[in-house]
Design brief:
The chain is an all-alpha fold. It contains ten helices and no strands. It is elongated, with a radius of gyration of 25 Å.
Length: about 200
């Protein structure tokens, strides 16, 4: 969506999870992504490249194998080549795509079609020099960490222990309803630490 102000990682994750679940996921996804990468709208094309990189990093060999076929690579070449869309594609999109392709030549050395496509673009002068690769790989951001302090967790664990020791049914019911995954994980951690594991 070109109106997005920033990458929507919830949508990107849902996309690559769907790709992994469907039998023809890689083929369908690459067809959709090729269309979006060729968009005349700069933001849309750049977002599609981000999704492509996220899929390359999260969808495994099946996806990478499809992306390394000339059928898909030719669609990317069209974005760079002045014979096709290169004359009107935004320079930022061409730079980013060049970076993506060059990264693949370094990362997927066994994929000869990627190597061939990149070499051809250099020989034709479409790519003048190898770009600098970014320092980080496009991966989904890690889930947000809990902001509870250790002291809050210890207070909750102490309260839970007191409720569990009580013989009153209402205390046990409160303890059962108050057990959250965080408290449970913390108690396991404390138990493991107590036994020196």
């Amino acid at each position: 969506d070109p109106t997005n102000q920033e990458d929507r990682w919830d949508c990107i994750q849902a996309f690559f999870q769907s790709v992994n679940q469907e039998t023809d996921g890689p083929q369908v996804a690459l067809s959709l992504l090729a269309h979006k990468i060729q968009s005349p709208q700069e933001k849309e094309a750049l977002q599609a490249l981000t999704v492509l990189e996220a899929c390359m990093n999260n969808c495994g060999k099946r996806f990478r194998g499809e992306a390394a076929k000339f059928r898909f690579l030719n669609e990317l070449i069209k974005v760079l080549s002045p014979k096709y869309f290169g004359s009107w594609t935004a320079q930022t999109v061409k730079d980013r795509l060049t970076q993506v392709l060059y990264g693949w030549t370094q990362w997927l050395k066994e994929e000869t079609k990627i190597q061939d496509a990149y070499s051809m673009l250099k020989k034709q002068g479409v790519i003048k020099k190898d770009p600098k690769l970014p320092d980080k790989v496009i991966m989904a951001p890690p889930p947000q960490r809990a902001t509870d302090s250790v002291f809050d967790q210890e207070d909750k664990a102490t309260l839970l222990a007191r409720l569990l020791k009580s013989r009153r049914p209402e205390d046990l019911e409160t303890a059962n309803s108050g057990i959250t995954p965080k408290i449970f994980e913390y108690r396991i951690f404390c138990t493991i630490r107590h036994f020196g594991v």
